[in-house]
């Protein structure tokens, strides 16, 4: 429940066990034993907590990938990430007759959104070929020769493994199973710097479509900086597809809190702290609205000493930040990062914006 000022009640500790219903039996061990996928994350998380700001990327890595997967199966999460229909629709409008065959995606998460997106993209490309409107028509029975390739890039190696598994289960193009589709993954922190991985993976000819879907951009501290890193990793002529969540036009301002006022979300955000061995009694968690953003803060309930770091009662750490854009803001962020907007679309309830831009 949200109070008049947009405050949610403070909740103590880690609700992971209360959210246990979302876990399958085989995940029980993982849920009970939080883990880092990179031992360096332990000290990095403590150092970030010292500064009062813990980047959200840690809430996707190691055991946090599993709490994220639980969150990604909720209706609230789906209401935030938007649909592949909107994204593919605007992409095909901008790249008419030239559906991209090289897709590099930053932040595929569990891979479910990616699977829906690639499925629709392949269907749209196949329809173009069947109509004879494709710029480079292919024999209809030879999707493999199109050289469709996908590169998933993420901070979380655990999520990349999940995404690969998800893609391996599902995609079929004109009856051709997903197998021939070339799927690669690589680690990349899009907030840190550019990457060479896209250049090393791409073919010499043809544009790459770079995707940042599911409002991933809205959860980053510096969205323009991240898009600049994408631009610096791409070539002139490459395409960018961004999916963003909009600030609701008609609903009450606090409506943006709704997807976050539940134990599954709290467990997902707090999992890095649980992995860093903080106890349920050490922290209180609060979600509130700040302007057009949702902010999640941890407050230490008592003094905690850990590996040379000291946290005092009342000390706060911001663990979550997700802003809701106005349409023009979304377009401006893309332009500021050096991309030229080609096309954009807003869905019917005006909740999501998909933007296609070219470098
Ligand atoms: C909100 S999830 C979105 C997942 C998916 N695109 C969807 O629509 O459901 C954010 C994704 O971005 C990744 N991510 C977050 N911060 C990142 C960073 N700094 N560098 C690379 N990937 C990051 C996460 O690991 C996760 O896969």
Could you estimate the helical fraction of the residues in percent? 25-40%
Contiguous low-pLDDT stretches (5 residues minimum) are 1-9, 16-30, 137-145
Order the strands across the largest sheet as they lie in space: 6-3-2-7-8-15-14
CATH-defined architecture of the largest domain:
3-Layer(aba) Sandwich
Derived from helix and strand composition plus strand pairing, the structural class reads alpha/beta
**Number of separate helices:** 11
CATH superfamily of the largest domain: Vaccinia Virus protein VP39
% residues in beta strands: 15-25%
- Ligand kinds: S-adenosylmethionine
- The CATH class of the largest domain is identified as Alpha Beta
Our measurement of the CA-to-CA distance between the termini, rounded to an integer number of angstroms, reads 44 Å
Mean pLDDT: 86
Notable features of this structure?
15 strands, alpha/beta, 4-stranded antiparallel β-sheet, Rossmann fold, 33% helix, binds S-adenosylmethionine, single chain, 359 residues
């Amino acid at each position: 429940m949200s109070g008049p000022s947009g405050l949610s009640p403070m909740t103590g500790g880690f609700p992971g066990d209360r959210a246990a219903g979302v876990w399958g039996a085989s995940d029980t061990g993982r849920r009970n034993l939080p883990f880092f996928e990179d031992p360096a994350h332990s000290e990095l998380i403590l150092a970030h907590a010292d500064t009062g700001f813990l980047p959200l990327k840690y809430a996707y890595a190691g055991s946090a990938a599993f709490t994220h997967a639980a969150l990604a199966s909720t209706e609230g999460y789906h209401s935030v990430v938007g649909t592949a229909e909107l994204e593919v629709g605007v992409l095909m409008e901008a790249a008419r007759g030239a559906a991209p065959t090289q897709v590099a995606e930053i932040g595929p998460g569990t891979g479910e959104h990616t699977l829906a997106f690639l499925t629709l993209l392949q269907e749209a490309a196949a329809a173009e070929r069947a109509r004879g409107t494709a710029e480079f028509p292919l024999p209809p029975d030879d999707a493999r020769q199109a050289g469709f390739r996908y590169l998933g890039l993420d901070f979380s190696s655990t999520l990349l493994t999940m995404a690969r598994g998800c893609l391996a289960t599902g995609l079929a193009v004109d009856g051709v199973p997903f197998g021939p589709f070339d799927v690669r993954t690589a680690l990349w922190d899009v907030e840190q710097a550019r990457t060479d991985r896209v250049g090393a993976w791409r073919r010499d000819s043809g544009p790459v479509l770079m995707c940042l879907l599911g409002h991933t951009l809205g959860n980053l501290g510096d969205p323009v900086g991240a898009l600049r890193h994408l631009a610096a990793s791409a070539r002139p002529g490459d395409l960018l597809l961004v999916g963003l969540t909009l600030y609701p036009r008609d609903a009450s301002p606090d409506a943006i809190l709704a997807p976050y006022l539940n134990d599954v979300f709290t467990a997902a955000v707090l999992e890095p702290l649980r992995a860093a061995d903080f106890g349920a009694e050490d922290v209180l968690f609060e979600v509130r609205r700040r302007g057009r953003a949702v902010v999640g803060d941890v407050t230490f309930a008592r003094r905690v000493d850990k590996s040379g770091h000291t946290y005092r009662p009342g000390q706060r750490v911001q663990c979550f930040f997700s802003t809701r854009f106005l349409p023009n803001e979304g377009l401006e962020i893309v332009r500021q990062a050096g991309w030229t907007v080609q096309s954009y679309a807003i869905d019917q309830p005006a909740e999501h914006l998909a933007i296609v831009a070219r470098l």
